[in-house]
Specification:
Length: about 80
């Protein structure tokens, strides 16, 4: 599972900031491209980001890889 959630406390938040500063983080576009195997359109990326932000607001854990794959399947079935 590629779970995503907001940090539980300030210690987790600090560790996340350090990881990003050390170059261990990367852009959402790059992550989505890694999962899909191709560069997604801006609209697709925005939809993923919106869903991620909603899960953070609701304090829900989100399986980001599963979300991307479900959205891809939905997009393909709509064509």
């Amino acid at each position: 599972m590629s779970g995503v959630r907001k940090p539980k406390d300030e210690e987790e938040r600090a560790l996340a900031r350090i990881a990003i500063q050390e170059g261990k983080g990367f852009a959402m576009e790059e992550f989505i491209e890694h999962v899909l195997g191709y560069r997604a359109e801006r609209q697709f990326v925005n939809a993923v980001v919106n869903r991620l932000e909603l899960s953070i607001e609701d304090e829900d854990e989100l399986d980001l890889v599963e979300l991307i794959n479900v959205m891809k399947a939905f997009e393909e079935s709509s064509v």
